[in-house]
Amino acid sequence: MSRVTIKDIASKLGVSAATVSNALNGKAGVGKARRKNIMEIASQMGYQPNAFARNLVNQQSYAIGLIVSSISDPFYPELARGVQEKASELGYCMMLFNTNHSIKVEQNSIETLNARGVDGIILATVLQDDPNIALLEKLRIPFVLVNRLLLDPGIASSIDSVVLDNYRGGYESARHLLRMGHTRITIIAGNMKASTAILRTRGARDAMQVYGISEERYDVVDCGYVMETAYRVAKEKLKEKNIPSAFLCQGDNMALGVREAVCEAGMTIPGDIALLGFDDIEFSSVAGIELTTVSHRQYQMGSTGTELLVDKIASERQAGVTKNIVLEPELIVRKSCGFGVKGYIMP
Amino acid sequence: MSRVTIKDIASKLGVSAATVSNALNGKAGVGKARRKNIMEIASQMGYQPNAFARNLVNQQSYAIGLIVSSISDPFYPELARGVQEKASELGYCMMLFNTNHSIKVEQNSIETLNARGVDGIILATVLQDDPNIALLEKLRIPFVLVNRLLLDPGIASSIDSVVLDNYRGGYESARHLLRMGHTRITIIAGNMKASTAILRTRGARDAMQVYGISEERYDVVDCGYVMETAYRVAKEKLKEKNIPSAFLCQGDNMALGVREAVCEAGMTIPGDIALLGFDDIEFSSVAGIELTTVSHRQYQMGSTGTELLVDKIASERQAGVTKNIVLEPELIVRKSCGFGVKGYIMP
DNA sequence: TTGAATAGATTAAACGATAAAGTAATCCAA
DNA sequence: TTGGATTACTTTATCGTTTAATCTATTCAA
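Predict the joint structure of the above. Result:
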């Protein structure tokens, strides 16, 4: 509750509220001496502009929303930090929402955010058939997609986004396993409605083809990016007669789930089974885990996404060119894939 | 930008704006038929109340702020999720701020939050000599402390809080090591200005005394709750001639730092060195890590803290009794402390 | 000396809702 | 049938800013 208002200052100095407003906002039409005087009195009285009134007259809140599936998933905190810090830098606040992987909750979040008049939304959870894109467009609220995007070029071409080159990440990670001689690979995929999982899988498939592995010789299981599911799937896989020699996981958290199953089955990594992750969460590098994985630039995604959004908010009335930013992934070789099935690495 | 306003509805139906407002808000003084009619037209026209105008007239934003040191620290995401979900349930939004362990950034965050007119703040980062408590009180903004609190009973008795019984956690964890026969213990402490670290250390010291370990026989190092620092400290410790047989860490992330140092020194856990953590972050349970630790109730802390805060906001004008909630910790025995130095556990 | 331009201010409207006060019609009891 | 209570509204004020429109001296060129 900011007590002192612009009127208090005005009446104290015997001037009009408009003059005080103009002085404080550095606008023309106020004499030098008076301006200085007003500024002094204002700070002396501890004046704090009332955000509600400002928001009302400008129809702007200087707040943005960030929607993630769950901040507890170790993939998202760095992204959120990127958004928050860049937002603060640009004078915005960040409101955080978790969808818990639910389209319905995603919808509620968007509606709430809109009802509160945020200036824009960063959506990290979009799916291919996501009805909420239409919602966002109907609400005419600026938004950018980060992490995941829409693959339909017709739609995608008009939506700002910041994503990793997931195809390449998928390709390179599969290639790494293939070069090490693995031919029985199970792909532990993320949510196959998410562009990330689709593209990583597509990249992996292409790599398989290049290395002459036909479709019957590997399989892809949608584990929805949840660790628990990956664990259960791996558990089952390892009971079959012809178990895979490598698990290609599309998320480090899922890789950890698989790792758990492998360990429980009494097998070792990379001795019996090779394991490859994706995202390079902080935890993947700890001794004894040392997951070979693909780096992801969560912080940068959040930070750049925020820049795009704020740009978009500022230039709302102008024509605005769509920006699609693609970040480059990097294969990070640690120990979870060992030194290859036959002890050497193919070219 | 919500286009249609209360006035549009009013003029369309030939009634006054006040009647529309009353009808929509379920207030008395509107005839049955008219009320129904207004509601229908409103939803038909896609009316969305303008939050800015509402905020201005009620001087309330239905938003709260959460201040953590860094959302990337695996301790905080669950807490944030607890806050966000409870907040949503109660009709509030959560704005997230990271302080990066800086008092100055903490101050900025509070001031920003205040300037934006949030209804209250949840502070998870308070230190004993934190000048920002005075700031919060000066601003007369409702707040609650979670995770950490102030130990000075004079101040603490008037501030709502939700914390773990850190003394007990510290005591039990030390006792566990002592029962296993460890007598050379290094305590990797958190930030010693945080009540968590102070109380955990106090608990540990008391346990030491009960088990007859004098002060010269163990040491306490402030690692500020950062993994990297813990890693470096452990690295140094392991170079000394008389290395500890156990590290008692006040945070799982720091335990992982220590673990790294131990591994790099070519030693094993728990074979050569016992390791005990605190917080039970999700990662601590994975195969091969299996950190013995103390459970912390991050989600509940966030959720309950939010309830207290919203209570406090609602009853702001009333006398309001201070609530201090203490959650119980639980020792979670996994493998990182092995089976005791002499192969047995003391009573 | 006149008229236009300009600096420095004021007034009033607007933003979109809510809350308080006022009014006209209806109802019911005495 | 009178008058108090109730109901269903409307009018007006207010929240704290910003901003467009207006006003009044003063300056200055012609």
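Residues 298-314 of chain B form the longest helix (17 residues).
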